[in-house]
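Example record

One chain of 297 residues, shown exactly as stored in the release files.
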Amino acid sequence: DGVSVGDGEAGGVDSGLPVVAGQLAPRGTGKPVSGGYVVTGRWGFSSGILHADWLLGAFKTDSAAGDGAASDGGTGFGRMVVFAAPKSDAEVIDNWYVAGLQGTGSLDFRVEGLFVPEEMTYDLGIPAVRGGDLFRLGMPAFVSNEVPPLCVGLARRALDDMTELALHTARFPGGPTVSDRAVFHKELGRAETKLRAARLVHREAMADCWEMACAGDPPTEEQQLAVTAASVFAVETAAEVVSDLFRYGGGRVLALSNPMQRHLRNALAARQHLALSEEGYEAAGRYRLESAKPRHS
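Predicted structure tokens for this chain:
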């Protein structure tokens, strides 16, 4: 659910860019005041927050004052405001004790009555004013290259690890190794094909959006929905591949020292991401049905 951007090093040279973490879900409120907002709220899943200098959060204003008839910027959730604040202005809550993706450090943070100058805010969904083609991708395409590629790579590693394990592992003493069993041959062939399919469908959807952005236009609603559905498919397919392979490892893969259990936990945790809900499929299906309805003049 979180966002983490920035890199202090570029080609071995300090780039001077800040490291930023946070969450763009509207978990807080912002009261309009002279020169900005007074913000209160708590945001979770702020991946990389321990290494960040700045935090991002989103809120809906607790008053209609100053909102006018502002557009929702295409988000579909009404007007939401994003703010940036130094991490030193927030309380970081040490609560990232989870079953998977432990290394992301996605802790919560909280602010109470924090004044944020207006120039440190923007409306979520408005067109980018800098950053080039990448920042013309919009949402969700801009963040779609985070979790799906991670999961495809994770499943690829699980496929390699299980192949190696199968070469010298027998489920029963004196029995055939897993690598000698025809059913495992089938499983490997199917896993390889599913993984390639998941990777390609996601890359195709992203390539369409990228081509549009490079041409100077934001991706269309149809293209964004295609990215959303492809992202859900890629992650759920990767999780299925890891889960199916895991069964052939027997009890040894339950050990915390075995990479297969880590792959499984991480894959299952990734499926819980807000952007990977099956509601993505529902939105794509609704769009298709609406597009198929006859239009009357």
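Notes: Residues 43 and 247 are 37 Å apart (CA to CA).
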